[in-house]
Amino acid sequence: MIRLCDVHKSFGGNHVLRGVDLGVERGQSMVIIGGSGTGKSVVLKCILGLIRPDAGRIEVDGRDVTQGDRDDFLAKFGMLFQGAALFDSLPVWQNVAFRLLRGRGKRPRAEAREIAVEKLRRVGLGPEVADLLPAELSGGMQKRVGLARAIAADPAIIFFDEPTTGLDPIMAGVINELIREIVAEMGATTVTITHDMTSVRAIADRVAMLHRGKIRWTGPVEEMDAARDPYVDQFISGRAEGPIETLR
Amino acid sequence: MIAALARIGRLALAALAALGRIALFTVQTFSHLVRPPFYPREFGQAVMSVGWQSLPVVALTAVFTGGALALQIYSGGARFSAEAVVPQIVAIGMVRELGPVLVGLMVAARVTSSIAAEIATMKVTEQIDALVTLSTDPMKYLTLPRVLAAGLTVPVLVAVGDIIGIFGGYMVGVYRLGFTPVTYLQNTVDFLEPLDIISSLVKGGAFGLLAALAGCYFGMRSSRGAQGVGRATKGAVVAASVLILAANFVLTEVFFSA
Ligand SMILES: Nc1ncnc2c1ncn2[C@@H]1O[C@H](COP(=O)(O)OP(=O)(O)O)[C@@H](O)[C@H]1O
Ligand SMILES: [Mg+2]
C-alpha cells in the first residue's frame, strides 16, 4: 500500500535520510522506532508531500505520490502530529471537524458538529470539551483531540507521530489501547512513530528501525526480541553501551 | 577594503533575492484570488483584526500628529509671517504624506507583527503541516484573506487618519492659535484637491498590501523554535516599514512629480 524506495533527504549539510526502503501492506500496523532526530518524522512528511525528498520514489496504492490530484491523495490520510498541532484559534469541535467544514467534503455545520462530538466520544472526551479552545486542555487531552481529528473523515491510512510521548504511563496506555481499537474498527493502514517500547508491543504488526538514515532492521513484532541485531537489541533494552553512539 | 566591498555586494544580492522571492510570493497569493475554494469567514475575521481593531491606535496617532503639525507650522511660519497657512499645510501634510505613512507604519507595527508571529508559531508547531494534510492550502486559508483584508481596509484607516489628523490641527488652530472655526475649515476644504485624496487612499491600499504580505511571507518562512518566531516577526516588521517608506517615495513621485 505504501512503498518507499531509496529515499534521500538532506537539510543543508545534515544528511537525514540516506536511502530509506520501506513497505507497508494494506491493513497493517507498522511501527517505526529509532533515536530522537534520526528522521522518523521526516519519513512521514515525505510520504505526505510536506517535505520533498532529494531522491527516491514513494508510492501509495501503486501510484507515485508526486503524480495525480493532491486533494484526492490527501483525503486518504489522517495524521496525528507529534505536538498534536491543533489550530489554537478554533474551538475543539471545529478542529476535529476541520475537513468536514470546508472544501470538498463539506457538510452542514450541525452535522459536522455531531460527527465531531461522536469522534470525541470515541477518544474518551465528553461533549463539554467541544467548545473549549485547545489551549484550555491538558497535553493528554490535546493528543486525544488530535487523534479524533485524524480519524474524523474515516481515512484509509493514518499516521501517528509519537502518540504517547510526554504522557504519564496510564494515559499512554489509554492512547495505545485507543489506537489499537480504532484501527481494528476502521481497518485502516497505519504507521506509528514511537520510542516507547510498551507502545511498540501494544500496537505493532511489524517494526522497522531507522538508524543513520536507513532502515536498519524490519520484521514482525514477534521477531523483534530475537532479532540478534545489536542495534535493535540495544534500543529495546535501552542500554547506554552498544553500537549506537550516545552523548554522555 | 575588498572584503568590506564584497560584504556590501553580498548583502545587496541577498536583499535583491529576498525582494524577488517576496514578489513571487505576491504573485502566488493573488493567483488564489481566482481559484476556489475561498474562505469568507477568515476574510471577515481579518477585516476585524486589521481594520476595526486598528482604529483606536490610528486615531490617537493622527490627532497628536495633526496637532503638533499645526503648532510647528505656526511657529516656523512666524519667521516669515506665514502663520496664516496653517490650515492648508496641515491638510496637505496630513492627506498627502503623514496620514498614509503614519497609518502604514502603525499597521506595520500592529498588524504585520501579529500576522508574522501567528503564522510563524503555526509553522513551528506544525499547524501549517496539519492544514496541508487536511487538504487546505495555507496560501488560500491564511495568506490571501489577510492580504486582501489589509489592502481593502487600510485605505479606510488612512481616510479616518486624515480626517482625525486635520481635526487635531483644527483643535490646536482654533483653541491655541486663534483661528476662527469657519476660516480654518474653509481654508482646508478649498485647498485640498481630489488628487490629494486619491493619492492618500492609493498609498493606503499599497501600504496595507505590503504590511500583510511581509507578515505572511516572513511567517511562512520562519525557521524552527521560539527563536525562529522572534526572527520572523522582527524581519517582517523591518521589511514592511522599509517597503512602505520606499513605496511612499515611489508613489509620491508618480502622483506629484509633474
Ligand atoms: N524542516 C526542517 N528543516 C531543517 N531541518 C529539519 C527539518 N525537519 C527536520 N529536520 C532535521 O532532520 C533531523 C530529523 O528530524 P525528525 O524527523 O524530526 O527526527 P525524529 O526522528 O525525532 O522525528 C533533525 O536533525 C532535524 O533537525
Ligand atoms: Mg519526530
TrEMBL record, chain A:
<dbReference type="InterPro" id="IPR027417">
    <property type="entry name" value="P-loop_NTPase"/>
</dbReference>
<dbReference type="GO" id="GO:0005524">
    <property type="term" value="F:ATP binding"/>
</dbReference>
<dbReference type="InterPro" id="IPR003439">
    <property type="entry name" value="ABC_transporter-like_ATP-bd"/>
</dbReference>
<protein>
    <submittedName>
        <fullName>ABC transporter ATP-binding protein</fullName>
    </submittedName>
</protein>
<keyword id="KW-0813">Transport</keyword>
<feature type="domain" description="ABC transporter">
    <location>
        <begin position="2"/>
        <end position="237"/>
    </location>
</feature>
<dbReference type="InterPro" id="IPR017871">
    <property type="entry name" value="ABC_transporter-like_CS"/>
</dbReference>
<dbReference type="InterPro" id="IPR003593">
    <property type="entry name" value="AAA+_ATPase"/>
</dbReference>
<dbReference type="GO" id="GO:0016887">
    <property type="term" value="F:ATP hydrolysis activity"/>
</dbReference>
<keyword id="KW-0547">Nucleotide-binding</keyword>
<keyword id="KW-0067">ATP-binding</keyword>
<dbReference type="Pfam" id="PF00005">
    <property type="entry name" value="ABC_tran"/>
</dbReference>
TrEMBL record, chain B:
<keyword id="KW-0812">Transmembrane</keyword>
<feature type="transmembrane region" description="Helical">
    <location>
        <begin position="50"/>
        <end position="71"/>
    </location>
</feature>
<feature type="transmembrane region" description="Helical">
    <location>
        <begin position="197"/>
        <end position="220"/>
    </location>
</feature>
<dbReference type="GO" id="GO:0043190">
    <property type="term" value="C:ATP-binding cassette (ABC) transporter complex"/>
</dbReference>
<dbReference type="Pfam" id="PF02405">
    <property type="entry name" value="MlaE"/>
</dbReference>
<feature type="transmembrane region" description="Helical">
    <location>
        <begin position="12"/>
        <end position="30"/>
    </location>
</feature>
<protein>
    <submittedName>
        <fullName>ABC transporter permease</fullName>
    </submittedName>
</protein>
<keyword id="KW-0472">Membrane</keyword>
<feature type="transmembrane region" description="Helical">
    <location>
        <begin position="147"/>
        <end position="177"/>
    </location>
</feature>
<feature type="transmembrane region" description="Helical">
    <location>
        <begin position="232"/>
        <end position="251"/>
    </location>
</feature>
<dbReference type="InterPro" id="IPR030802">
    <property type="entry name" value="Permease_MalE"/>
</dbReference>
<dbReference type="GO" id="GO:0005548">
    <property type="term" value="F:phospholipid transporter activity"/>
</dbReference>
<keyword id="KW-1133">Transmembrane helix</keyword>
